[in-house]
Design goal:
There is one protein chain. This protein is mostly helical. It has one domain. The protein is built from 4 helices and no strands. α1 packs antiparallel against α4 and α3 runs antiparallel to α4. It is elongated.
């Protein structure tokens, strides 16, 4: 499980979500925690590549929703959008890491399928 590069990407997502939890308020902490736990659940699906790819896509959507909630919170609080909070940058990085994990799982799946065709 740990030798796969997508596992490293998903562990980085968990670390980023923990960092976001320390930077935000209570409701956003819960949402970031849910995304972090989802990344851990995605790691645990290493035996089923199709489910792991689906979970990566769901994680990307969850991160986009989280960014939208952060943006709405900024807008309702009357903050200006000229200065982007650092935790929003971490969310964007987590989306990129989820996409890299998806591509790693897809590569593994394609590799196994090609080996099955050869047999």
């Amino acid at each position: 499980m740990w030798q796969r590069k997508q596992t490293i990407y998903l562990v980085l997502v968990v670390i980023l979500m923990i960092a976001v939890c320390f930077m935000t308020r209570s409701f956003e902490q819960v949402c970031a925690g849910i995304v972090g736990m989802h990344a851990i659940a995605t790691i645990m699906k290493y035996e089923n590549r199709k489910k792991q790819m689906r979970q990566c896509r769901i994680g990307i959507v969850m991160c986009l929703v989280l960014i939208g909630m952060f943006a709405l919170d900024q807008w309702y609080s009357g903050a200006d959008f000229e200065s982007v909070p650092f935790y929003l940058c971490l969310e964007v990085v987590s989306i990129i890491l989820y996409e890299m994990a998806y591509r790693g799982v897809k590569h593994d799946d394609d590799l196994v399928r090609s080996a099955d065709r050869i047999r």
